[in-house]
Amino acid sequence: MESIRSVRTSLHLAKVLVSERRYDGARILYSNVLPVQERLLGSKAPEVATTLENFGRLLHAMKSHEPADEMEARARRIRAELAYTRSATDGQRW
Questions:
Q1: Dihedral sign, Cα of residue 79, residue 81, residue 66, residue 32
Q2: For the whole prediction, is pTM greater than 0.85?
Q3: Which of 35, 51, 54, 64 could make an S-S bridge to 59, C-beta 3.0–4.6 Å?
Q4: What is the per-residue pLDDT across 20-78, written as a single tens digit (0 to 9) for each?
């Protein structure tokens, strides 16, 4: 699973498993996909933030609140940095 296509496929499957309440299988997929996604896209990519948010929701559903909170906080940091970077870049156009 070292391509963006396989990452996307695994993420779609994880969402299906979550909808079927097959949480353990979804957790395994998210755990495997996240490091590959970070390696391929960078650790601060918006797609990584989305994966962290979805993984966090799954972990909350599994009653693993502390790791879920950590993932959600990391996703918020990524989104905040992206928003700041975009606004700083937009300001340079003047």
A1: positive
A2: yes
A3: 64
A4: 999 999 999 999 999 999 999 999 999 999 999 999 999 999 999 999 999 999 999 99
Q: Rounded to an integer, what distance in angstroms lies between the CA atom of residue 27 and that of residue 25?
A: 5
Report whether 69 contacts 56 (CB < 8 A): yes
Mean per-residue pLDDT for 67-93?
83
Q: Which two tokens stand for residue 47?
A: 């797609």
Please give the CATH number for the structural domain made up of 4-91: 1.25.40.10
Q: State the Cα–Cα distance between residues 58 and 71, nearest whole angstrom.
A: 11
Domain segments of the chain: what residues? Answer: 4-91
Contact 78, 49 (CB under 8 A): yes
